[in-house]
Amino acid sequence: MSGSGCDTIGVLEFDPCGNFLASGGIARKIRIYTVKSVQGERRIGDAPLALDHSNACDFFICTPAKLGSIKWKPGLGSRVLGSGDYDGVVMEYDLEKKMPVFERDEHGGRRVWSIDYCQSDPVLGASGSDDGTMQMWDPRCGDSGKCLAMVQPTKGYSTPVCCVEFNPFKGPIVAVGCADRRVYAYDMRKMLDPLFVLDGHEKAVTYIRFVDERTIISSSIDGCLKMWNAEDQKVLRTYKGHSNSRRFVGLSVWKPGGLICCGSENNQVFVYDKRWGEPIWMYGREPRHEHGFVSSVCWQQKDENQCTLVAGDSDGVLRVFNGKRK
């Protein structure tokens, strides 16, 4: 089964309990699936379960603009989903009521590429945008959510902020990946000069993921992933094999198993063991369109011994893989 070429799946997110999956993209819809509706009996290495995501979802919510990012609000039983869109607006949706409950627009109409929530204070959020800023905001501060802090990582000139990630393990740290090929980390309590800068990619940094309290994985359109020691800002390992020179192709880490997954512009899914720089597994198919690519990936974090990996592509197809930890 396949979807429409104009229905690229830009982002996939499992909820904190691992019971629901959300997808967003250029179709101006947030689609919600129960895990039961997307899981199959197949294992990594077997042919995946393929779903037309427009038909597999349990319900959807229409959004005012195309979506650059979605993120579940932290907390067990959370049914609030945040989104950042191409019009520069951050919104939160109550999925039980199927309606928006919060909206803020302080990025000057410039596309929001990424949003995230702070694990220690789940109401606190951050967004990164084409306007060159990362903004932290709190919906408790008035209807529009007061901007608590704003940073422009590059001094003297503006470059798009492509990704934002709070450290979910330890300390008040938020990391920002920029089109100037660097990762900047800030102390949330000060938000002045960065605590440290990770400089090693050759092109824009598109994704950041914390593996543990002192280790960061970054993805770039230079065609590689890098694992960093945040304490001394050294590159621990570089991962190569996938194709990525111009698009956002997704990045996800299965923390219990130490596996890293990303998409590719050759329409393949790549999995790396964090210990080795070469891929340990990949899956691909012929795209319906000449320039088809895998545009988003997400691991379910619920189980330490069994994993579910979901990949979405530019044709609007979800592919689901199941695996067990050896």
From TrEMBL:
It is found in: Cytoplasm, Cytosol; Nucleus. PROSITE patterns: WD_REPEATS_2, WD_REPEATS_REGION. It comes from Solanum lycopersicum. This is Uncharacterized protein. It comes from the Eukaryota. Keywords: Cytoplasm, Flowering, Nucleus, Repeat, WD repeat. InterPro entries: RUP1/2, WD40/YVTN_repeat-like_dom_sf, WD40_repeat_dom_sf, WD40_rpt. The keyword Cytoplasm applies. One of its GO terms (biological process) is regulation of protein-containing complex assembly. Its main location: cytoplasm. One of its GO terms (cellular component) is nucleus. WD repeats lie at residues 198-238.
